[in-house]
Design goal:
Elements (H helix, E strand, L loop, with lengths): L1 E3 L2 E3 L8 H13 L5 H6 L4 H12 L5 H13 L2 H29 L1 H25 L3 H10 L6 H12 L4 H32 L4 H19 L16 H4 L4 H24 L6 H19 L7 H11 L2 H8 L2 H13 L1 H15 L5 H30 L1 H4 L1 H16 L23
Antiparallel strand pairs: 1-2
């Protein structure tokens, strides 16, 4: 109802808007506001690209395990399998930032789909080469081609950043959801891969992963309305230079993850758990996933606070392993995982704040590359300590790396500045209470 001059105008809600407004009015009348995640996925287009994102992200936890089981099963050499997957990781560290730069420059759909096709063809070539007994160098070449796989998590975060540029609270919730999705996929991916390769045939994990990756990417890129626009303006600033103070922190955090996994596998193997060790290892990812979802509903903490919690909890598995109790270790891994997601969410928010305009996907890919490099170094270092001093002593590697991360956070003044609040400014919309 409005007043125009001396005329009283009564406007009825249109049939299209009335059904949508009625539930909101009932919620306001009952005093129950929708939760942060419900508000997040009420935004147009978010459910579509999130569905594609999750389907395409699940294979990220499948490919490594599938390749190892396939190559070792057909060629009888874990050394060859490990060398092939390590080569793929090294190739990804080189290729991924360039793929991300092309995505920022030309658009997600235009680059991500052909890049995914190349990666899928690399996976299919690997299956064919393993199956036909091709020379070993063909395995390395085939798996290296999968390095063109786009950073689907980075592209999804870029979409959230565009949609929620005026709401830091909702942006924090979205980043927490993305981190929880990472943990969930890296927890379920290896389990699914091992099941497919063990129950069906050795190549099943790789084939299923390739199919999921292509399907999910096609669904994700078909959601054009939420795709970040491509700007023709000159691109100024270097993401590498902007993220310089943060990359050592991501690198050391990767060491924490890689060393913790290798050490825990070795410890549980000594304890005689065998195949059941996967369930204990999954507790760390489960703790991180739960903590990530919970962290999205509360106010964001500073990066220093999160890294401090990480340093404290990463000492718990060492103490638990010293007792010789697998139950104590399981509880310690669960608690250690709960400090992981808040640290990564807050650190990624720093990436959003620092990365030059129009190069967000490249910036996030650089951060992920630093993490993967740290994972490789941490796995190698922990393996060396396990061989020399035993698995219990090897738990000092992730604990020490977490302390180094804390020292970086405490001494780096620029790291402690506010994160994405410098870019995201809250504005009041028509639907917000005044």
């Amino acid at each position: 109802m409005t007043v125009t001059g001396s005329t009283l105008v009564i406007t009825a809600a249109s049939p299209a808007t009335a059904p949508a407004a009625a539930p909101a009015a009932r919620r306001r009348a009952s005093g129950r506001a929708p939760g942060p995640y419900r508000r997040l996925f009420a935004l147009p287009g978010t459910r579509g690209f999130t569905a594609g994102n999750l389907v395409a992200r699940l294979p990220m936890g499948m490919f490594g395990v599938s390749a190892v089981m396939m190559i070792a099963g057909q060629r009888g050499s874990y050394a060859l399998a490990g060398a092939v997957t390590a080569t793929g990781l090294a190739a990804t560290a080189v290729v991924a930032p360039w793929t991300a730069r092309l995505i920022d420059r030309h658009g997600q759909a235009r680059i991500a789909v052909p890049a995914t096709l190349i990666a899928v063809l690399g996976s299919l070539a690997l299956v064919a080469c393993v199956r036909t007994g091709a020379p070993a160098w063909t395995l390395f070449a085939s798996y290296a081609a999968t390095a063109t796989t786009p950073n689907i998590g980075g592209m999804s975060r870029a979409r959230w950043t565009l949609l929620l540029r005026d709401s830091p609270e909702a942006h924090h919730t979205a980043m927490s959801f993305e981190q929880a999705a990472d943990e969930l996929c890296f927890m379920l991916g290896p389990v699914l891969a091992a099941f497919l390769c063990g129950v069906l045939f050795p190549e099943a994990g790789t084939l299923a992963g390739a199919a999921l990756l292509l399907t999910g990417m096609l669904v994700f890129t078909s959601c054009r309305a939420t795709q970040p626009p491509v700007s023709a303006a000159p691109r100024r600033g270097s993401p590498l230079r902007a993220l310089g103070p943060l990359l050592p922190l991501f690198l050391v955090t990767g060491v924490v993850f890689g060393s913790m996994e290798v050490t825990s596998i070795a410890y549980l193997d000594v304890q005689g758990l065998g195949a059941a060790s996967g369930l204990v290892l999954a507790l760390q990812a489960a703790g991180s996933c739960a903590a990530g979802l919970l962290y999205g509903t509360v106010r964001a903490r500073s990066l220093t606070t999160c890294v401090c919690a990480l340093a404290v909890t990463m000492a718990l598995p060492w103490a638990a392993a010293a007792t010789g109790s697998v139950t104590a270790l399981a509880g310690a891994l669960l608690l250690a995982g709960m400090a992981t997601a808040p640290t990564m969410v807050t650190a990624m928010s720093q990436v959003h704040a620092r990365t030059p305009e129009g190069r967000l996907n490249e910036g996030m890919t650089l951060a992920v590359t630093a993490i993967f490099t740290g994972i490789a170094a941490g796995a190698a270092g922990a393996g060396w300590v396990v061989e020399g001093a035993g698995p219990t002593a090897a738990y000092t590697v992730p604990a020490t790396a977490a302390l180094i991360a804390l020292a970086i956070a405490l001494t780096g003044r620029s790291i402690r500045r506010p994160s994405d609040r410098s870019r995201v400014v809250r504005t009041t919309t028509a639907g917000d209470p005044q």
